[in-house]
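Input (structure):
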């Protein structure tokens, strides 16, 4: 029995939410300097050349810092729109590596690349099969994309995969805890809660292409830190943002290197 059914697309207003807020695009960028097929990230030569351009954006000579900062942007454009569609619209895109390209132009300031898909076909769960369908969507996105890219970048730049996965995890936490949920219906709120609980506490490691569920692995208890009103989740790894900063002591609020 099939776990999903094919649907044509989202309503225009639904797609617009993903395009405006979650870095999905159907537009092809004319200037291809910072554009790249997802699959090129597995090619050492193409990936290294691309990351060299990216390191210029972040003004760092550290390959580890450049890869870490790029991983944050890449993780967001891969997961944000699809997780929103999953929980809000009960629909999902195919975010496997072979089905997308990075679309981007850098004009100074913040660099915010977007994802453009090759096949825009969407699926939704067959009757009574949402759990199985959800696994399909998540596995394509995590194991079929991010895990493969993180493995390639870790080997290329000698950066621990744990940093790249925690960069991914912090966005999942932020999306579900701080961003998603606005103007959600009761049914959507229920799906948001169920999906987030599943990702953190029950999703098997193979959906991520790893031996452990990384979202579960980095889900540390929130603690209080001086200067911050609300408790925060302290990272287990440093993302090396401070290496790209003018101030070398400018650690993130959740950095494990902070002493207070």
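Output (sequence):
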């Amino acid at each position: 029995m099939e776990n999903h059914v094919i649907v044509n697309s989202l309503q225009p207003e639904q797609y617009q939410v993903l395009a405006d807020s979650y870095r999905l695009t159907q537009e092809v960028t004319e200037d291809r300097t910072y554009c790249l097929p997802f699959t090129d990230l597995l090619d050492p030569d193409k990936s290294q050349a691309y990351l060299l351009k990216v390191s210029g954006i972040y003004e760092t000579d550290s390959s580890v810092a450049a890869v870490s900062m790029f991983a944050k942007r890449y993780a967001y454009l891969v997961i944000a729109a699809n997780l929103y569609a999953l929980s809000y619209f009960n629909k999902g895109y195919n975010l496997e590596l072979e089905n997308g390209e990075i679309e981007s132009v850098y004009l100074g300031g913040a660099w915010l690349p977007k994802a453009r898909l090759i096949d825009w076909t969407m699926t939704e769960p067959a009757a009574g099969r949402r759990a199985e369908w959800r696994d399909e969507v998540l596995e394509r996105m995590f194991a079929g994309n991010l895990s493969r890219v993180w493995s390639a970048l870790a080997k290329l730049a000698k950066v621990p995969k744990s940093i790249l996965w925690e960069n991914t995890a912090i966005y999942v936490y932020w999306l579900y805890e701080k961003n998603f949920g606005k103007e959600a219906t009761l049914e959507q709120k229920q799906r948001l809660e169920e999906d987030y609980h599943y990702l953190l506490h029950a999703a098997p490691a193979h959906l991520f292409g790893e031996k452990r569920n990384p979202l579960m692995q980095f889900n540390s208890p929130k603690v209080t830190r001086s200067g911050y009103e609300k408790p925060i989740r302290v990272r287990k790894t440093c993302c090396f943002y401070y290496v790209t900063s003018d101030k070398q002591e400018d650690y993130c609020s959740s950095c494990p290197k902070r002493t207070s």
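Notes: The mean pLDDT is 90. Strands lie at 4-7, 36-37, 92-93, 100-103, 114-117, 122-125, 222-223, 232-233.
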